[in-house]
Design goal:
heterodimer, A: mainly alpha, Outer Surface Protein A, domain 3, 6 strands, B: 284 residues, alpha/beta, TIM Barrel, two-stranded antiparallel sheet
């Protein structure tokens, strides 16, 4: 086995013996000096996960987080040196991690945290000029295609993920409710915001994200929620710079 | 091989490793700090605040890009995706310097996020030189290669680290980044003279000096084992080793690295002031 294969295995599996023929510089054996690398790798990758998933850490406590992070980083070491991307499989891993299985809301909460970091690093975009909606003739509005900003992220959950996130990040936030919540992560300038969507909002935005025109997206929303109010949601999207473009579909 | 001129245009003055929490303080009053260094891997997103801040900083300061994840000492080939990201960053930022480490971090698709050691042999020398040629080609500029901090040595090594670095520099045309704290950490851990290491180092190839704090642990025999933690002030013997180095190298771009338990700006600027004082003692 090559040196680096030996190192990789022994670093990621502390139960393995340390690689042979390592010295202390004085012709003695390196002894437990190898553990410096084990510690550095475990601690630095756990820290990377803590930075992306602070609410998960708060929910389960630092000890449990270190345990699940340690197991995760051994099963799924990063495949890229760009560590802001690390942890894409962490939500799924939480769902499969038996000791935490009774906390069913953890995976979707982790997906929200992962989405916030992705949004933070997403491409910039010039927001659409809101006047486009006034300029478009009412009969043409159903044919308008909206393009969401690259930093927008839609999350649908059977859990109150917005309330859980707020309760664990905002001083004095209310207790999470006992019902499902859908969230759109927006980035008005540089700081991502999780926005609670009204009923029908996720169906509307999923259709928009799939490049359906406004009319079709409205239909999807009202099928889910007859009281869906487009103007309120549109106002929020414009306020948060979440629409990057709006173009009229010229096809008949 | 690229041309052999020193691989950067950093001023022979103090710089600091940039931390986003210091953005406003730096923009208001950088004090003694004349240039900034950023970790390449923190600026590889598509946009957002990190990229915007870096653009603003680069309008005011020379910027050094310091890679921490290419795995130049790796047994496998360099990651083509990562080379492309480095090229993209260098293309738009046009940094005053680019540097990376004599170390490896990726093997068999796992990025271990640590600067791991390699033995010094003819075979590893050839491999590292080939990787540096490939990187310098990709980013279209010469790089600086940094000496590691060592906690152990390899039985199969046949070359001294200083000879290894000198030969790499000769073969590839790369410059060197001399981390004086790493020298002190390695010398303590492996039982050699830090001054002897500086004496043997090809100082004419040095384009930048690094300083940082270390932690103190013990090995199995109760001897001090220093850990390159970047989490505190530069230790007194390391300042002394900086003076020893500068007296022989002449002034160089000198960086304070403080990556963990990052202090408020005044504490970091205070370390930079001390580096400025060390630099003024040196005849140009």
């Amino acid at each position: 086995m090559s040196r680096q294969s030996e190192f990789r295995r022994a670093i990621l599996d502390p139960a393995r013996p340390v690689p042979p023929d390592l010295l202390d510089g004085r012709n003695g054996s390196a002894g437990w000096r190898f553990s410096v690398y084990r510690n550095n790798v475990t601690l630095s990758l756990t820290e990377a996960l803590e930075q992306t998933f602070p609410v998960i850490r708060k929910l389960i406590g630092p000890q449990a987080f270190a345990t699940v992070a340690g197991a995760y980083l051994r099963a799924h070491p990063p495949t890229s040196p760009v560590l802001s991307r690390y942890g894409a499989e962490f939500p799924d891993y939480l769902a499969r991690f038996k000791p935490l299985a009774q906390l069913g809301y953890l995976p979707d909460t982790a997906r929200l945290e992962r989405a916030l970091v992705d949004s933070y690093h997403a491409a910039d975009a010039t927001p659409v000029d809101p006047a486009i909606f006034a300029r478009t003739a009412p009969e043409d509005l159903p044919r308008l295609h909206l393009r969401l900003a690259p930093a927008a992220r839609l999350l649908c959950s059977p859990w109150p993920i917005h309330g859980i996130w707020r309760f664990n990040t905002e001083e004095g936030a209310p207790q999470p409710p006992h019902h499902a919540q859908d969230v759109l992560v927006t980035r008005p300038e540089y700081d991502p915001l999780p926005r609670l969507l009204p009923p029908g909002g996720a169906a509307f935005l999923a259709a928009i994200a799939a490049d359906a025109p406004l009319g079709t997206a409205m239909d999807r929303a009202t099928e889910t929620s007859p009281d869906f109010d487009l103007s309120t949601l549109l106002g929020l999207l414009l306020q948060d710079n979440a629409i990057a473009d709006a173009t009229l579909d010229m096809a008949p | 091989m690229l041309d052999r001129t020193p691989a950067n245009t950093l001023p022979h003055a103090p710089g600091v490793g940039y931390k986003p929490q210091h953005y406003n303080a730096i923009m208001a009053d950088p004090g003694p700090v004349r240039w900034l260094e950023v970790h390449a891997e923190n600026y590889m997103g598509a946009g957002g605040r990190p990229i915007a801040q870096l653009r603003h900083l680069a309008e005011r300061f020379p910027v050094s890009v310091h890679g921490v994840g290419l795995s130049i000492g790796g047994e496998g080939r360099l990651d083509p995706d990562h080379l492309a990201r480095l090229r993209h960053l260098c293309d738009w930022l046009q940094p005053a310097s680019f540097s990376e480490h004599l170390a490896w971090s990726t093997h068999d698709r796992a990025f271990l996020n640590d600067l791991l050691p390699l033995p010094y042999t003819d075979a590893t020398l050839t491999r590292v030189a080939d990787h540096i040629d490939e990187l310098q080609e990709a980013i279209a500029r010469p790089m600086l290669l940094e000496n590691p901090s060592s906690y152990l040595a390899f039985a199969e090594s046949t070359l001294e680290e200083t000879d290894f670095l000198a030969e790499i520099s000769r073969r590839t045309g790369c410059g060197l980044l001399l981390d004086v704290n790493n020298v002190f950490v390695s010398a303590t851990n492996l039982g050699f003279s830090p001054q002897g290491y500086i004496d043997a180092f090809p100082l004419d190839r040095v384009g930048e000096i690094h300083l940082a704090g270390h932690d103190t642990d013990e090995d199995d025999h109760g001897r001090p084992l220093l850990i390159d933690s970047h989490g505190r002030e530069v230790d007194e013997p390391v300042w002394a080793l900086l003076d020893y180095t500068l007296a022989r190298s002449g002034p160089r771009a000198t960086l304070i690295e403080w990556d963990n338990d990052v202090p408020d700006w005044p504490a970091l600027a205070g370390e930079a002031t001390r580096a400025a004082t060390a630099l003024t003692k040196v005849p140009a």
